[in-house]
Design goal:
Number of helices: 3
Number of domains: 1
Shape: globular
Order of helices and strands: EHHEEEEHE
Distance between the termini: 10 Å
Helix content: 10-25%
Strand order of the largest sheet: 1-6-2-3-4-5
Radius of gyration: 13 Å
Largest sheet: 6 strands, antiparallel
Structural class: alpha+beta
Mean pLDDT: 89
Strand content: 35-45%
Length: 102
Amino acid sequence: MVLGAQVRRFWDVYGDEPERVRFWMGPDAEGWVRDWLAGGWIGHATVHRIPSMGHAVAVLEARDEGVLLMDPIYGHVVEPWDWFLGIGPGKHGCHHIGAWYR
C-alpha cells in the first residue's frame, strides 16, 4: 500500500460475505483463483507442505495443469489444482490467500 499497489485482503471483507470464505479456497475455488490471476493480480498464500506448519508463497499464474507458485523452499513450481486449493474453509491446515496485489 505504501508503494501504491492495489491490494485486496481477507480483512477487507467483513462478516459472512461469500468472498470472505473464498480466501480459504477449497475444491470449488479454482474459478475464483483463475479470475484474480487473469485480472493481473498476484496472490500471497499460506500453504501447508508440512501439515503442522504453513509458509508463504506467491501465486503467479493459472495453468490447466495447476498454479504457478514462487515458493521460497522449491523456487518456481507448478502445483496441481487439487493440492493448491486444499481442503477448504473451516478445516485445520487449509491453504489460504492472505491478499491479492496488483
